[in-house]
Design goal:
single chain, about 425 residues, alpha+beta, 2 domains, eleven-stranded mixed beta sheet, 13 helices, about 55% helix, transmembrane
C-alpha cells in the first residue's frame, strides 16, 4: 500500500513540475477546459435558476386553479383562425358557473386589459397593470391586505368606484402618508382607495406590488364587451377534496350546455389549469437543458481534444526522459500515472477556473438584475462541473499515458537522441 502511495505522490509531483515548466502550453490547455466547463455550468445554472424562480412564484397558487377562457395557456391543435372566432368569456358565463357548477371553493371573474396611469394630486405612476376582477380573487390568489380592506361582494356586484393598491404603487403615490380614503384618478375617473396590499416581493411575473385591483363591474360600465371588446376569464378554485379530472368533466359539460354546443361540436373555450402550465414550464426547461448540453458539450469536447493533443506532444518531447526513467527501474504504472495526473490536473484546474467565472458571473447578474431574478449556482452544479472536468482529464489523458508507459526504454532513449 505504501508503495502505491509513493508512486502516486511522485507521479503527482512530476506532473506538477512538467506543467510549471511549460506555462504557455498549460495556459492554452486550461483555456479550452475552462471555456467548456463555464459554458455547461453557466447554461445549467441559468436554466435551474429560471425553473426555481418560476416555481417559487407559482408556489402560492393552488395547482388545480382553473382559468376558463377563449385562450389556451399551452400548445393546442386547434388552428388560430378558429380560436380567434371563439366567443368572449363574459360576465353572464361567470354568473352561470358560480350558480350551477358544484364543488367550488371560490370563483372570480376578471377582465384582461391594458396598463393604465394612476394619479394622485401631483404624483403620477404610469404603466400600472390594473386587474379588473371580482372580489373572490382575494380567496384565490396569494396576497394579503396590509392597510384597509379588499372590496366586498356588494361593491364587486355594484361596480363601486373603489381601488386596492399594490405596496409599491401606494408608496410611489403617497409616500409615508395614509392612502386610505384618498381619491386617485384612473381610467379618467375618480376611485377611492380602500386598501393597500402587503408587500409581496419580487416576481418574474407581474408582482402584486406593482398592480392595482378594481371591481370588474366597474370597468364593464365603460369598456366594451362582446366579440370586439376586452377578453375576460373565469378563475375557479375547486374544493380541496374534489377529484380534479371529474370536476373538469362536470365543468366542461355544463359550460357546453350553457354555450348551446351540440354533441360532436368542438369546444369553443379552454380549461387551463395552473398544473398544466407548470408541466409546460417543466417541458420547456427540459428542452433548454438538452439544448444547453448539446451546445456546451461541443466546447467541452474541444477542450478535451486540446488536452489530448498537448499530452501526445508531451509524450513525444519527453520520450528520451521516459526511456531514462524506465532504464533506471521506473515501472510502467509510474509512467502511466505521471502523464495521467498531468492531464487530470490540467482538466480539474481548468474546471475550477470555469466554476469561478460562473460564480463571478452569477454575482454580477444578481447585482444588475436585483430582486427580480436570482441567479443561483447550486452545489449540485458545482459538483457536476468538478466531476466533468475530472472525467474529461481522465479520458483525454488515458491514451497518451498508456502509449508512454508502453515505450521500450532502449528505443525511447535512441529516439530521443
Amino acid at each position: 500500500m505504501l508503495v502505491y502511495l509513493r508512486v502516486f505522490k511522485e507521479s503527482f509531483s512530476f506532473a506538477l513540475n512538467a506543467l510549471k515548466n511549460n506555462k504557455l502550453r498549460t495556459f492554452l490547455s486550461l483555456t479550452g477546459v475552462t471555456v467548456g466547463i463555464f459554458s455547461i455550468i453557466a447554461v445549467l445554472a441559468a436554466v435551474d435558476s429560471l425553473d426555481r424562480n418560476i416555481k417559487e412564484n407559482l408556489s402560492g397558487l393552488d395547482k388545480n386553479t382553473i382559468y376558463l377562457t377563449k385562450f389556451s395557456f399551452g400548445p393546442t391543435d386547434i388552428p388560430r383562425w378558429k380560436r380567434d372566432n371563439f366567443p368572449q368569456t363574459e360576465y353572464d358565463a361567470f354568473d352561470f358557473v358560480r350558480r350551477s357548477v358544484p364543488d367550488i371553493d371560490a370563483v372570480a371573474y376578471t377582465i384582461f386589459g391594458s396598463t393604465e396611469t394612476i394619479r394622485y394630486q401631483a404624483e403620477t405612476v404610469s404603466g400600472v397593470g390594473i386587474d379588473a376582477v371580482s372580489n373572490e380573487i382575494y380567496n384565490i390568489n396569494d396576497f394579503k391586505v396590509e392597510k384597509g380592506r379588499f372590496y366586498g361582494e356588494s361593491e364587486s356586484e355594484s361596480g363601486a368606484p373603489v381601488i386596492v393598491l399594490g405596496y409599491t404603487i401606494a408608496e410611489n403615490l403617497f409616500g409615508n402618508s395614509n392612502p386610505l380614503g384618498k381619491k386617485v384618478r384612473a381610467y379618467g375617473r375618480k376611485l377611492t382607495v380602500i386598501g393597500v396590499l402587503k408587500k409581496f416581493g419580487a416576481s418574474i411575473f407581474d408582482s402584486p406590488d406593482e398592480k392595482a385591483f378594481v371591481p370588474a363591474n366597474f370597468v364593464r360600465r365603460f369598456r366594451n364587451g362582446g366579440a370586439s371588446g376586452l377578453p375576460g376569464a373565469i378563475i375557479i378554485k375547486p374544493s380541496s377534496d374534489v377529484e380534479i379530472s371529474s370536476f373538469e368533466q362536470v365543468l366542461k359539460q355544463k359550460f357546453r350546455t350553457f354555450r348551446g354546443l351540440k354533441a360532436g361540436e368542438d369546444d369553443n373555450f379552454f380549461i387551463n389549469k395552473i398544473s398544466g402550465f407548470v408541466s409546460a414550464v417543466d417541458s420547456v426547461i427540459s428542452g433548454m437543458n438538452i439544448i444547453g448540453w448539446i451546445i456546451s458539450g461541443f466546447s467541452l469536447l474541444v477542450g478535451g481534444f486540446g488536452i489530448a493533443n498537448i499530452m501526445f506532444v508531451s509524450v513525444k518531447e519527453r520520450t528520451n526522459l521516459i526511456g531514462i526513467q524506465k532504464s533506471l527501474g521506473a515501472k510502467n504504472r509510474f509512467i502511466l500515472f505521471q502523464f495521467l495526473f498531468e492531464a487530470v490536473i490540467l482538466a480539474v484546474v481548468g474546471g475550477l477556473i470555469g466554476l469561478l467565472f460562473v460564480w463571478i458571473t452569477a454575482n454580477i447578474m444578481n447585482g444588475v438584475v436585483g430582486e427580480d431574478f436570482e441567479f443561483v449556482l447550486s452545489f449540485g452544479n458545482m459538483f457536476l462541473g468538478f466531476g466533468l472536468s475530472t472525467f474529461i482529464g481522465l479520458i483525454s489523458g488515458v491514451i497518451p499515458a498508456i502509449s508512454a508507459s508502453k515505450l521500450d526504454p532502449v528505443e525511447a532513449i535512441r529516439t530521443g537522441m
